[in-house]
Amino acid sequence: MNQPTPAIVAQSAVRRLPRWSLLLLCLAYVVPGFVMRGPWRSADMEAFGYMRELAQHHTSWFKPAISGLLPTSDGLLSYWLGAVALQWLESLLGPELAARMPFMGLLVVTLAATWWGAYYLARTPGAQPVAFAFGGEAQLTDYARAMADAALLALVACLGLAQLSHETTSYVTQLGCTALLFFAAAAMPYHRFKSGMAMVLGMLGLALSGAPTLAMLFGLGGAGMALSQQSWGDSSGRNMRQARLWSLAWLVMTAICALLITLWNLWASHLANNVKDWDSLLQLLLWFCWPAWPLALWTLWVWRRQIARPQYNPHLAVSLWFAGVPLAACLISQPADRALLLGLPAIATLAAFALPTLRRSISALIDWFTLLFFSISAIAIWVVWLAVQTGTPAKIAANITRLAPQFSASISWPTVLVALAASAGWVVLVIWRTSRNRAAIWKSLVLPAGGATLGWLLISTLWMPLLDHARSYAPQMEQIATRLGSASERADCALTYGLGRAQIAALRYYTRLDTQLLRQSRPGQCQWLVADADRWADPHSQPLRTQWTEVARVARPTERKEALVLLRRASAPAAQ
Questions:
Q1: DSSP 68
Q2: Rounded Cα distance, 476 and 525, in Å
Q3: What are the DSSP E strand ranges found in 523-571?
Q4: 3 state SS of 497
Q5: Which of 173-182, 256-265, 373-382, 514-523 has the lowest mean pLDDT?
Q6: pLDDT (average), residues 398-414
Q7: How far apart are the C-alpha atoms of 293 and 460, rounded to whole Å?
Q8: Where are the alpha helices (DSSP H) in 289-358?
Q9: With 60 as the cut, is the pLDDT of residue 574 above it?
Q10: Both ends of the chain: CA-CA distance in Å?
Q11: 420 partner at 20 to 30 Å CA-CA among 101, 198, 251, 388?
Q12: How far apart are CA 278 and CA 276, in angstroms?
């Protein structure tokens, strides 16, 4: 027999979270960070550059390259999605926003798949709360909906989700595909077609987005869970035959993905012993999954008897598998935070199953800590914005001027109004939560989710001009374009020396120049050279210096050490 459930939930505790408020929260979380900014340095700019090359048919779709350089991140799917979006939407939305639209959709898919995955897991027999002697326990559908609401709130509240989920990289693609597989494993007994489509898309997506090993592990795990779950029904009936078919389907998709990965040579390995740097790893685990991880650990403790019988408790087995595999990858691969990102949907679901067992004192502690943390954070964001706009407080304004000396502050009233509305909404939410003792089971996660959304929205509105100035290549590349002279006077190409892929992508995008690596160029091919200052000063570059004349040295406004040298071929005529 299955062990008695530790969940004790009355019908009054599963009252419905208004759909409009949940949708508004998701909208406020998804949109900021994708709009009102250019591509940021390193991974974001590099990915955008490869997408443009594909969209303009300058490189192969199966082996994308910029100036002959292959991308540093693995996988093809993220570049394909961005390139297709550029071809279809660039004329309507502009290149930068158009390339981000698929990734905005992937974040929506992640949130939706987490909600539905938690919903169907909460409907399984082992997840149900204790039945009361005289009735009044939570009804099946209402309980499942409340747990799904809690899982979504826990996911939005996770601090590590905000920045990484708003990038245009393969990690966002991996997150969306992992969430689809999580939903597929949870909904197998309920929706054959939807679960099957989610499984196919998720497996293929992971295989093509740089996570082939995770795709294999999730596929094998899905097959094992489908075959072992006793909740399918009696072993001689139709339900067990359906379970065997599901297990076979997972194995077939795993084999198909392995074949594709092998044929296209997409196997990738980023093994690293992160455990030896245990202090940094511990810090990452503490803040990245906050506040979901303490609740998830509490779930593991109070449901420990059920964990010992996973065949009767798919709500724990599925969540643990989809949380444990990314956690293990975080310990043995780089970058660790990107690997841990994929486990957030399952960790948030585990956190939701702690709520039926929480004591009122623990719930109050979560509320007050969250209230203080996010209120202080919101006040700090507003104070820094006021310092940028008015110069008061003077010390903060002086520090910002020192870090970003070329930044010119301006007020965008629409974004200020959005930030004010979000701040007012936070005040209303705090008053609602603290003035009335709501019985809803999801109440302990309302403030964490609302506070995380508030902080992200304020940063993405009030601070976005400053962040865009600090993290974009645009100011540096615009200076280079100015030094090159007008379009009628300058050449159409430039050589590069020592530049990274993101810098080359930025140079091509902002200056509209064609670029080639210096070591791969033909003699006299281009009259201009853009070189990394440190590499150009290296003694190994001495033989090249006689062939080029330095025209300008251009540093990034917020990082003076990251300078580029603009050079002209010594025999070339000077630009006017």
A1: T
A2: 25
A3: 528-532, 548-556, 559-569
A4: strand
A5: 514-523
A6: 87
A7: 26
A8: 292-302, 304-307, 314-332, 336-341, 344-352
A9: no
A10: 86
A11: 101
A12: 5
Which among 363, 505, 364, 380 has a CA at the least distance from the CA of 58?
A: 505
Of the candidates 75, 87, 82, the one whose C-alpha atom is nearest the C-alpha of residue 101 is: 82
User: Closest by alpha carbon to 242, among 322, 201, 202, 187?
Assistant: 187
Q: For the purposes of burial, counting CB atoms within 10 Å of the CB of 182, is it exposed (0-12), middle (13-18) or buried (19 or more)?
A: buried
Name the percent of the chain in helix, strand, coil, to the closest 5: 65, 5, 25
Listed in sequence order, the residues at least 6 apart from 293 whose beta carbon sits closer than 8 Å to its beta carbon are 285, 286, 347, 351
The whole-angstrom separation of Cα 231 and Cα 216 is: 25
Dmax (CA) of the chain: 95
Q: Select from 123, 171, 445 the least CA-distant residue to 333.
A: 171
| CA-wise closest residue to 463 among 209, 210, 163 | 163
Cα distance between residue 388 and residue 398, in whole Å: 9
Alpha-carbon distances, residue 278 vs 281, 286, 568 (angstroms): 5, 12, 49
Residue-level pLDDT at 275: 67
Residue 491: the pLDDT is: 64
Please give the DSSP secondary-structure letter assigned to residue 159.
T
Q: What is the CB neighbour count within 10 angstroms for residue 57? A: 10
Q: Is 136 left (phi over 0), alpha (psi -120 to 50) or beta?
A: left
Tallying the residues shown for the chain, one arrives at: 576
Half-sphere exposure of residue 26: CA atoms within 13 angstroms, side-chain side: 21
pLDDT for the residue numbered 1: 39
Task: Average the pLDDT over 343-367 and give the result.
Answer: 90
pLDDT tops 50 at residue 18: yes
Give the C-alpha distances (Å, rounded to integers) separating 149 from 114, 351, 389, 444: 10, 12, 39, 12
Each residue's pLDDT tens digit, 99-130: 999 999 999 999 999 999 999 999 998 999 88
Please report how many Cα atoms fall inside a 13 Å half-sphere around the Cα of residue 146, on the Cβ side.
27
Residue 3 has pLDDT above 60, yes or no: no
pLDDT at 573 over 80: no
Which of 558, 190, 192 has its CA nearest to residue 402? 558
Model confidence pLDDT, tens digit, residues 20-75: 999 999 999 999 999 989 999 888 999 999 999 999 999 999 999 999 899 988 88
Dist CA 541 CA 535 (whole Å):
7
Q: What is the chain's mean pLDDT, rounded?
A: 89
Which tokens hold the place of 125? 């027999």
Question: Tens of pLDDT along 360-380?
Answer: 778 888 888 899 999 999 999
* pLDDT, position 230: 59
List, for residues 159-172, the tens digit of each pLDDT value: 999 999 999 999 99
Task: Identify whether the C-beta of residue 4 lies closer than 8 Å to the C-beta of residue 130.
Answer: yes
- Evaluate whether 531 touches 378 at the Cβ level (below 8 Å): no
Provide DSSP, 192-259.
Answer: HHHHHHHHHHHHHHHHHTT-HHHHHHHHHHHHHHHHH-GGG--TTSHHHHHHHHHHHHHHHHHHHHHH
